[in-house]
Amino acid sequence: MLSSRQILLLSTSRVHGYEFLEYAKEHIDKLLRGNNVTNLLFIPYALKDHDFYLARVDAVLSKWGYNVTSIHKGDPKTLIQAAQAIYIGGGNTFRLLKALYDNDLLDLIRKRVLEEGVLYLGSSAGTNVATRGIHTTNDMPIVYPPSLDALKLVPFNINPHYLDPDLNSVHKGETRQERILQYQELPEAGVVIGLREGSMLLIENNTMILKGLCKSRLFIPGQEPQEIDVGTDLSHLLNR
Q1: What is the pTM of this model?
Q2: Per its UniProt entry, what is the enzyme's top EC class, as one word (predicted)?
């Protein structure tokens, strides 16, 4: 029952000039408090030190009035079953996805978010794993998950931390845009949204809007990449 999904996907948790998650506080508050949710289940699997990561997140969200429980403090499936909202943070996307597979959590999280209305907040790697697959992550494959297929909360890929070419740079390697276009040469590839730092996607029911501080970049196979302004309705991409 896809009409129940409420998802906020952040490019990053840290933006220059802002404290941790601060740039997205208005949208996080609206998503959570608008649904009378003050308890979050945090999934810190993208970093090795789960206690350190929990302390960093809790230090911020507790000041905002939220109670944070980490999935590594109990039985993962039991905690997901009881969660009002799930927050998956950034780090290494391959490490994160492997841990979700190792704990047999993908189907359960997908069901809870898409069928039971549990709120989902993702940043960076947590945004990558919300998509159809992690093919467009920027991270190194330091571990190998069984598959690149991810949670499939949305039917496209995202490239968090999307960077534009630096016209003053002497670096001759591929740009981020070239990398994404190389991915889209594959017959199974689909839409990719390049989320620049400070941008985010808000998905409510069957509506998706670009939010945040700046424009993003849309890559549709067979078409020229295009700029998308903050406030653009991208709902049609949910049905591709």
Answers
A1: 0.95
A2: hydrolase
Buried b (16+ CB within 10 A) or exposed e, 32-68: beeeebeebbbbbbbbeebeebbebbbebbeeeebeb
86 φψ region: left (φ > 0), alpha (ψ -120 to 50), beta (else): beta
Per-residue pLDDT reduced to its tens digit, 182-205: 999 999 999 999 999 999 999 999
CATH of the domain at 151: 3.40.50.880
Which residue reads 């991208």 in tokens? 234
List CB contacts of 16: < 8 A, sequence separation 6 or more.
197
The encoded tokens of residue 189 equal: 């590839």
Let me know the angle formed at the C-alpha of 141 by 123 and 173, rounded to the nearest 5 degrees.
90
Catalytically active residues, by annotation: 124, 139, 161
- Residue 39 phi/psi, 5-degree rounding, is -110, 125
- Tens digits of residue pLDDT in 94-122: 999 999 999 999 999 999 999 999 999 99
Residues of the domain holding 118: 2-239
Bridge partners of 211?
200
User: Which class for 89: exposed (0-12), middle (13-18), buried (19 or more C-beta within 10 A)?
Assistant: buried
How many distinct structural domains can be found in the chain?
1
